[in-house]
Specification:
alpha/beta, single chain, 3-stranded parallel beta sheet, 10 helices, 35% helix, binds zinc ion
């Protein structure tokens, strides 16, 4: 595969052109973990439920899902692979590390060195994701390789705790060409994240910044776009009775000719968002009701296809580093 771009799914590498309609940031499985101990609504521990929840979205054309669960936070690669087989969806799953609040105190992600952290990431990208979710003193490699690196920043950018982790992520991207999906706390810190990653060998073209639509500020989004990174909007169903900020930002991006740099997800990591658990709006939201809202503000089918198909295929592609 030297030279050619590819997307690394759990069941194998594919041509980016074959990815299809993609949700750019989801959580299909979250096993019991530090986070679910404190927030039981995040527990998503059933392959059957995920398959059922995805079916209405698949009926609307969904072909691929990017899962965003980092190491030792309830990630379960074997369950995700089973969902991929049962649904026929292309699933991309990450290696990577979460925000420190999702780990118990003195977790190893804050205690080992940058080179060691990079080695952990590269092992899951090149060899296989650990069946034990990097929670044990042994690693059981699966044949399912990581197709992206997830990393979380803090308010306003990477904190002192986050910085060595971001450096490790940049190192792993420079080495493997693997795309990166970041968490922007309250939507902030995207500029600082890209600057830090690029300083250590990262490539903005392979970086997607999550949750930035929490900040409905046209100037901020223009600055983010100027970095060369892709923006991942995932707040579209969270506005209640307020004006839909995600839709507002999409309208501005259309005016600015920037729709080729945005991808859409739901980040629906709660039982309360899933229809199979009696929640709302359900996984069909983006391709159903929200796509209708996008059409109402004047986005045509070409624009919508760009958001769901061409943009994810570009940002989630591996760019093999020059030899
Ligand atoms: Zn997420």
């Amino acid at each position: 595969m030297t030279g050619a771009a590819f997307v690394r799914t759990l069941l194998g590498d594919i041509d980016p052109a074959d990815l299809g309609v993609t949700y750019a940031h989801e959580h299909l499985i979250i096993q019991a973990s530090w986070t679910t101990l404190h927030h039981p609504d995040h527990l998503l521990d059933s392959v059957e439920d995920a398959v059922a929840e995805l079916a209405p979205a698949q009926a609307l054309g969904l072909r691929a899902v990017v899962d965003g669960m980092p190491a030792d936070t309830g990630r379960d690669v074997l369950a995700l692979a089973e969902i991929a087989r049962r649904t026929g969806l292309h699933l991309i799953a990450p290696t990577g590390f979460h925000h420190e609040r999702h780990y118990p105190p003195r977790h190893w992600t804050g205690r080992i060195g940058t080179d060691e952290l990079a080695g952990v990431l590269i092992g899951e990208i090149e060899v296989g994701i650990d069946a034990l979710d990097l929670s044990a003193p042994v690693v059981r490699r699966t044949p399912h390789r990581a197709g992206l690196i997830k990393v979380a920043g803090s308010l306003g950018g990477p904190s002192p705790r986050d910085t060595p982790i971001f450096i490790a992520v940049a190192t792993a991207q420079a080495r493997t060409g693997c795309p990166i999906l970041t968490h922007c706390e309250q939507g902030t810190g995207g500029l600082e994240q890209v600057a830090l990653l690029e300083r250590h060998g990262g490539n903005a073209a392979g970086i997607a910044l999550s949750h930035v639509d929490k900040v409905v500020d046209r100037g901020y989004h223009r600055e983010l776009l100027a970095t060369g990174a892709t923006l991942e909007y995932d707040q579209s169903f969270r506005w209640g009775t307020a004006e839909n900020g995600t839709l507002r930002l999409l309208a501005w991006a259309a005016e600015d000719g920037a729709l080729d740099r945005i991808v859409l997800g739901m980040d629906a990591a709660r039982r309360g968002y899933w229809r199979v658990h009696g929640g709302t709006p359900g996984m069909e939201w983006l391709l159903g009701p929200f796509a209708a809202r996008m059409r109402e503000i004047g986005l045509d089918e070409t624009a919508i296809a760009r958001l769901f198909v061409a943009n994810p295929a570009r940002v989630y592609a591996f760019r093999p580093p020059a030899a």
